[in-house]
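Usage example:
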Amino acid sequence: MTVLPRTDWTRADITALFDMPFMDLVYEAQTVHRANHPRNEVQLSTLLSIKTGGCPEDCGYCSQSVEADSGVKATKLMDVRAVLQAAAQAKDNGSGRFCMGAAWRNPKERDMPALKEMIRGVREMGMETCMTLGMLSEGQARQLADAGLDYYNHNIDTAPENYANIISTRTFEDRIETLENVRAAGINVCCGGIVGLGETREDRIGFIHALSTMPHPESVPINALVPVKGTVLGDMLADTPLAKIDEIEFVRTVAVARITMPASMVRLSAGRESMSESCQALCFMAGANSIFTGDKLLTAPNTGDDKDAAMLAKLGIRAMQAVPHGHLEEAAE
Ligand code: SAM
Ligand code: DTB
Ligand code: SF4
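Running the assembly step on the lines above writes:
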């Protein structure tokens, strides 16, 4: 019998975890990690922006919003062949999952055929597929599932009570509705958020509380804000003590995510480029077991394969071997 991870966490439970002495918290997180995941292994994903910039949403952290004066140029949806070329390169570099992101409020029906071709093509290469395209209707989620999409990324980003301070063009409930459509279509959910938006500890508690009391996302990305000049938050936080996140508080957030969502993959996402190797090592100790590889995220810089390979070798961490869903059964036949 499979025992589902608990989803009845209270805010008091989560507050108590955040308040633990740091060493006890990290020790507990690593203990939970070892009971649920192979130790010393991280899963590697590669990101590609298949449609950049010009997004009508006003997310205060994002360089791709039309509201941001970040210098990011808007592009059209890439053609399928170019996407598959990038995917082949990611596979050569050892990536097990290819994540395609578009700066949209939601995909249009006319985009669906190309998106489905991208999914089929990447899957045929033997990689897991992930997309992040903004809001999805029930029908769109089903179409992507039928094409074989393994994961859909759609973040709640911050606590429900802090959401309107960060984004005004949609609500927290809109996010939940898409997550439900994705889940109903049988696609694995990738859902997390950002630390370092200028939020309070209470907001971080509310953020983890929201994630750990929904059906747990299979994958939980924890991003550290990459402050971008010309975005609301990049400009607001610049030259303030909040411009650089407190690394200990960041590691605490990773640890509490690991403890409350023991079976999920916890992904150390944006912001690694400006994080020390020691901080990243603490995040792995606290239960993070996935990263984005390559020298670019969507528009922001990432650490790069050579530096990452050197760090993982130093830490004795291996790349997790991914077997895409559905291919498992095929492999067994
Ligand atoms: N447009 C889609 C959406 O919002 O769902 C997909 C792409 S969006 C860039 C995916 C996620 O990237 C956001 O939810 C946010 O968590 C993260 N992100 C975007 N800009 C970021 C930044 N400057 N620093 C850290 N994380 C960021
Ligand atoms: C997620 O939570 N982080 C990734 C992925 N999901 C799509 C994106 C990070 C974007 C960082 C900012 C940029 O590259 O523009
Ligand atoms: Fe658009 Fe996504 Fe950026 Fe928000 S985070 S502005 S929805 S691309």
